[in-house]
């Protein structure tokens, strides 16, 4: 019992009590009452003062209640197939050793006592109940789990015990984590035991860690899942071969190519030799495909004597060989908006590969830069020049560039502060290539403002096509002019002082005043474009991204004489091409017009071709500009997804993508147990007593857990005067009763 006085002071209560008593001592006017009646009234008032003092002291009572608390003991056993492997001692398997260990503690576990609750589980790739029947722990005849997921299983065993006290977790198994896609990592499960339960984790490992002789293996461990290359371009296929147990031994590795008809061709052979055990060796095969199509690449390491598992000696990938793609080189003086958005627009075309280089004016002392590799005639199909001064390239390299254009390459120059005449291209080999002429003073130093204004056109500057042309076709012929009017105008443009006359020279875009803004031309066998503006980036920034992509794609195709490509393209994409059994394959498909625009009104008929040739219909749904879907695959083997796109009764095209579901026995691939992982897992709870154990230590452990002092739940209850409705009303009633009695008696005795 204790008190909790008002104002936190006993002195305050004492002063109030003394004041009330002093008022009583002064004496009320009792008149001629008898001393008996005076005594009664005095006692009543003293009782009222006493109640007030008690209320001011606020008496409090704390009650402590201790009740025994039940604790949980969790025991988990491994039922995956790796437990069929040898235990390392005699002919006994790990499964038999685990059964023997359980038999030693079975009676102890089933009789833990009233304060300990037993939770028993089996685990492989998931957690399963472990039945107790008639006091016996019933295990299956043989372990059959295809994978082992220690982390997820341990985590799942702890979830139902959240908020309870866990006395111990006992984990038995070989410690080998073989799950394809574990939801919870082993370390995370260990942290949960420590942080959420402060419980000791005891691990018991069966099976030897293994040495090179026990776990000899050769495996192709890494090979990109898919390759894409243009026909007759060299491809370097690289893989990683891991060698364990075959040190200083020559191991043949072979790469084969298989076409859609099943015909195989050996691309190359290599010999690898590991200088130390467990070494990962890189092996590569250069290959130049000669035909367009879809192929399968398979890298195989020859099976070695004594190798237990050979399924991991082979790894496959998929190769797509495309028709000759386009390569474009883009030279600019800085990373400006036009460069950024133009690069993005061109890279949106899967058949155009753009490389860009920034030639910063701050590097002028080192001009001209070396472009000898970039200007090799076989490297690029077209060139784009932005804000690049002619001096940055140099007259010799400009001559090479002019020769490349004459031989059939494309050239585009766009506006900028160092383009055309302002980039000092007058008098260079490119002056003859471009379809516009330069003024003699253009780009000179010391020009007056009036002279400068001669060479530029102030914006806003709308663009309008002068005639039908593949480059300027943004919509149907009837709607094309309207489509151009909707585009944001250019901020400014170069004023082309004069357009040349000659083969193919035409003004394709002009301003409302008739100023030429896009001029085409020909030089030798090559095509050339001069674009006066440098702010087409305004189009995508104002919502005209598709028009921007289409315009620049058509410009590149025209430059390389592919503007006659008038066909739609249907595609299908898989982010992965190799899957583990039970995986979900995400499918993305779509259709593009000949100008690169996405077609979102198509109907896709898609089917999954299973191993053996059976077919399963799939459904794809529209998501933005593409169609998506998914399917779960369980059986190992070769699969394919085929899709056909139709629009308004017209077939747009079809696409096919192959993929592989692994047929690897991962559970038995590595015969070595992993006691280090089990020890590391137990180490997370070392501060709480967790540790790795040998099987023979289990009986002593269970006895230790049973002999631990009982755990009590301590609960305190607090009572304070008037803290409950019952005693508050009782106190109030007594006080009112005393006051009422005092008033009644004084009334009766004529004092009021």
Brief account:
The chain is an alpha/beta fold.
Can you offer a commentary on this structure?
The protein is an alpha/beta fold and 752 residues long. The protein is 24% helix and 34% strand. The chain has 16 helices and 40 strands. The strands form ten sheets. Strands 19-18-20-21-29-28-27-24 form an eight-stranded mixed beta sheet. A six-stranded mixed beta sheet has the order 5-4-3-8-9-39, sandwiched between helices. A hairpin with a 2-residue loop joins strand 37 (637-647) and strand 38 (650-661). The longest helix is centred in the C-terminal third of the chain and has 24 residues, at 725-748. The protein is flat, with a radius of gyration of 44 Å. The two termini are 42 Å apart. The mean pLDDT is 88.
List keywords for this structure.
single chain; 752 residues; alpha/beta; eight-stranded mixed sheet; six-stranded mixed sheet; 16 helices; 40 strands; 34% strand
